[in-house]
Specification:
Helices cover 5% and strands 46% of the residues. By secondary structure, it is mainly β. It folds into four domains: 61 residues, no CATH class; 263 residues; 145 residues, no CATH class; 77 residues, no CATH class. The protein has an 18-stranded mixed beta sheet that branches. A hairpin with a 2-residue loop joins β1 and β2.
Length: 623
């Protein structure tokens, strides 16, 4: 019976302690006295009196086994109470915030690892930050690689005076879980800022685990929901798992990646809504570098302006595995297109690219054309890939030119094929005369095109580049410049390739070697010895390897040969030679006329037989 009585007593004390720690504490107040029953247990054993007035020793202590009840510490508001609890923590501590609504203006500051701040859940613990700085400052100072801790289980609400609701970064091994963060709606207000600061000459953000976090309540949002920034620290944001929901209102930004930020070897998963929109609203703004990252961004937007909804800045290099799909009800394709600023690089694919950024990249830009003339479209150290140019007329029809390029810095000649050259005005292309030039000093390459026949229409010339992500040191890694200025000193580059013309004609720069047969439109074979000009209505082609001998005089022969030579540039020993007289006259049936390439570029014509042949000159064709 004594053992049972002790057990009942222990259970009663435990229940009393749990009840004391679960008190609702409104508006930063302190818990009221809790009177517990001291009646007998069902077994008739008297229970110990553990009313709030009678509690003593460890039962009313603010800390128990490393768990600290913030409400039981001194301070003017919950922020100050939490800071008081942190000050008592010697090593790893968990600070709990009981259910309640707490208004506070004291920034909660956590600068040492191993400290976690845990509420009773986002629908039970509400922290209303009324100050004009950071609601929670969570950065390691001095910076350390030790695991930081956890923020979990509360709603954090700001005002138009809030700078950051959660100011973190310069941290390793942190967890953000089961949070709602909303209401930082001032000019520079941010829901969650991950910032690499210079604390003890270093600082980066790695191994962050963020899940089940809702940033920006619908209809309220934050001026920026989640931002990555560098302020004196390292550029590294690697090995993180960012997975959150966001709501974005008109004029706000959802996720923002700074110019010097480097996001890599991790996951970025965003889901959410654009609840209202205007021309400055951005669901995602990427200005830095995001490579070897698993990137999945999905969402939905209301009808309206989506100009910057998905923005890749001019200094961005985005080469990730995954996709970005934000649906909008007024988009004919159902998805908002990515806006890639001039110079920005964007290539997201459903599989990993082992050689990025040396391999394929996708970049887009546009330039409004209001006058005719020659315009540089793209420049780079190396241009190896495909350039697509599109000009929409007032009715929406398109001029299209596609250029396949192979050109390197200080390399001459270059390869340029034009497999597509389509004009909606027959015979009068708006885009024509593609030319490659090279800066005489730096070796930077540019592609120029001529714009004409616009019919008075002013509109954008769209340029899309799918090609190498590599340039020489004279340009930043992975970047190209669209629509640059023409350099003051340049040299035209010789090009080789096949170029389609709007009228259906095909031009060939360099030698054309045909391994098969040429066929007329009527199906008849064009003989390799045919003469004519390119584009001749009869369908003949002009053969490049031709020459003419001097006159082979009519010398009497007796079972012997006379000969003459012709210079034929490009002829090689062993090629077949066709011979005919320049006048069409027959040398005579008793004589044999034949030709042979006797050395490189030299054809010898032989007239053999018995008798005196006519004195003639001969045309030779080598094939």
């Amino acid at each position: 019976m004594v053992q049972i009585s002790r057990l009942v007593c222990f259970l009663a004390i435990t229940c009393a302690l749990a009840a004391a720690q679960a008190v609702h504490i409104p508006n930063g107040g302190t818990p009221g006295a809790t009177q517990l029953s001291t009646a007998s247990s069902p077994g008739g054993v008297p229970l110990v009196d553990i009313s709030a007035q009678a509690m003593a020793g460890p039962l009313n202590a603010p800390a128990l086994n490393g768990t600290l009840n913030a409400a039981l510490y001194s301070g003017l508001d919950i922020g100050a109470k939490i800071n008081s609890a942190i000050a008592t923590c010697v090593s790893q501590c968990t600070i709990t915030i009981p259910p309640g609504t707490y208004n506070y203006s004291t920034t909660i500051t956590i600068t040492t690892p191993g400290i976690s701040l845990i509420g009773a859940g986002p629908e039970a613990t509400f922290l209303n930050y009324t100050g004009s700085g950071d609601g929670i400052l969570w950065q390691m100072n001095p910076f350390t690689l030790n695991k930081a801790g956890t923020l979990q289980g509360f709603t954090l609400i700001g005002t138009s005076s809030t700078v950051n609701l959660i100011h973190t970064g310069t941290i390793v091994g942190s967890t953000l879980d089961d949070l709602v963060v909303s209401g930082a709606t001032g000019a520079a207000g941010t829901g969650i800022l991950f910032e690499n600061a210079n604390l003890t000459s270093q600082g980066w953000t790695e191994r962050v685990f963020m899940r089940n976090v809702h940033v920006g309540a619908s209809g309220v949002g934050n001026t920026t929901d989640v931002a990555l920034n560098v302020k004196g620290g390292m550029t590294s944001f690697g090995y993180n798992e960012f997975d959150f929901w966001q709501n974005v209102e008109a004029g706000q930004t959802g996720f923002s990646l700074c110019v010097t930020c480097y996001l890599y070897n991790g996951d970025l998963k965003i889901k959410g809504n654009i609840d209202s929109t205007n021309s400055t609203t951005s669901y995602v703004t990427l200005n830095g570098r995001a490579t070897t990252e698993n990137l999945v961004i999905t969402g939905e937007s209301v009808t309206g302006s989506h100009t910057n909804a998905i923005l890749v800045g001019s200094s961005a290099i985005v080469g990730a595995t995954g996709y970005i799909t934000v649906l909008a009800s007024d988009e004919t394709t159902g998805a908002i297109p990515v806006n890639i600023a001039s110079g920005g690089a964007y290539y997201i694919q459903p599989f990993y690219s082992y050689s990025f950024p040396i391999s394929t990249m996708l970049q887009e830009a546009s330039k409004t054309i209001s006058t005719d003339g020659s315009f540089p479209v793209i420049q780079g150290g190396d241009l190896r890939g495909r350039l697509q140019l599109s000009w929409p007329n007032a009715g929406g029809s398109m001029d299209e030119m596609i250029l396949d390029l192979g050109c390197t810095q200080f390399g001459n000649p270059c390869s340029m094929d034009v497999p597509v050259n389509y004009s909606y005005v027959s015979g009068s292309p708006v885009i024509s005369n593609p030319t490659i030039i090279e800066n005489s000093i730096s070796g930077i390459i540019q592609v120029l095109v001529t714009i004409g026949n616009r019919g008075g229409h002013t509109g954008p010339l769209y340029a899309t580049w799918v090609g190498t992500g590599y340039t020489q040191s004279t340009l930043p890694l992975g970047q190209y410049t669209f629509f640059p200025a023409i350099p003051g000193s340049y040299t035209a580059i010789v090009t080789q390739g096949i170029q389609m013309q709007p009228n259906g004609q095909t031009n060939v720069s360099g030698s054309l070697h045909i391994g098969g047969s040429l066929i007329n439109n009527n199906g008849t074979l064009i003989p390799s010895t045919a003469l004519g000009n390119i584009g001749n209505p009869s369908g003949y082609v002009e053969l490049a390897l031709k020459g003419t001998t001097g006159t082979i005089a009519g010398t009497p022969l007796s079972a012997s040969c006379d000969s003459g030579t012709a210079t034929v540039t490009g002829a090689a020993v062993g090629q077949t030679v066709a011979v005919s007289s320049t006048t069409g006259a027959d040398v005579g049936g008793t004589f044999n006329v034949r030709g042979s390439v006797t050395s490189a570029g030299k054809v010898t014509v032989y007239v053999c037989g018995t008798g005196t042949p006519a004195s003639l000159a001969y045309n030779v064709t080598v094939f």
